[in-house]
């Protein structure tokens, strides 16, 4: 498979937005557009691709801030878990404002077909009640569940420390050591590195 990825730290908290492209079909997905909508739109247009989905790992504002702008610009369906959408509808602190604009709720085991790519979804609650990670071949996009050398905060509303540890151990640490980890903030890592060096695990 010919997969190309652009990582753009966006917004005031520099959340990693990922533009993931099938270079053969020129279909793409945008993951966690957290801010700087104009920059992200420009980055997508430079690739001359068709945005098939906008996928959100969770509902915090630093990961959803540009989602509506991209949805409007590219007419792409916006997808998030039902659990995090419920937090958004209730106007909970730290959650983004995308109420009324979600096209699909992401569930455990969902697979998004984008060109020749299969994007597999797995629920990883803990940082938020409805956090999800996305697997594409030998890469996992972990949002704010797992970072290089750390894990997501659980002191915001809806967070749960025991749940995030359970999610990481049962959903992510079962992956092979070679799988690359692309987190919601900071540098990339691998499952193997985190298995050995992450102090929370």
TrEMBL record:
Residues 14-185 form the Metallo-beta-lactamase domain. SMART domains: Lactamase_B. Keywords: Hydrolase, Metal-binding, Zinc. Coiled coil: none annotated. GO terms for molecular function: hydrolase activity; metal ion binding. InterPro entries: MBL_Glyoxalase_II, Metallo-B-lactamas, RibonucZ/Hydroxyglut_hydro. The keyword Chaperone does not apply. Its cofactor is Zn(2+). Signal peptide: none annotated. It comes from the Bacteria. PANTHER family: HYDROXYACYLGLUTATHIONE HYDROLASE GLOC. This is MBL fold metallo-hydrolase. It comes from Clostridium muellerianum.
């Amino acid at each position: 498979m010919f997969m190309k990825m652009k990582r753009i730290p966006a917004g005031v908290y520099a959340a990693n937005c990922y533009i993931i492209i099938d270079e053969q079909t020129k279909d793409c997905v945008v993951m966690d557009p957290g801010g700087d909508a104009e920059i992200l739109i420009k980055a997508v247009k430079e690739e001359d691709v068709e945005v098939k989905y906008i996928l959100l790992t969770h509902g915090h504002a630093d990961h959803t801030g540009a989602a509506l702008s991209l949805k409007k610009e590219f007419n792409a369906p916006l997808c998030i878990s039902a659990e995090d959408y419920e937090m958004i509808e209730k106007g909970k602190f730290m959650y983004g404002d995308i109420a009324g604009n979600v096209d699909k709720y992401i569930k455990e085991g969902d697979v998004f077909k984008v060109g020749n790519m299969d994007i597999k979804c797995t629920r990883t609650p803990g940082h938020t009640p409805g956090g999800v990670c996305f697997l594409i071949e030998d890469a996992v996009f972990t949002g704010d569940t797992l970072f290089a050398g750390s894990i997501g905060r659980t002191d915001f509303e809806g967070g749960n420390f025991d749940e995030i540890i359970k999610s990481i151990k049962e959903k992510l640490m079962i992956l092979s050591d070679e799988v690359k980890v692309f987190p919601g903030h900071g540098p990339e890592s691998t499952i193997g590195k985190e298995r050995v060096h992450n102090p929370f695990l």
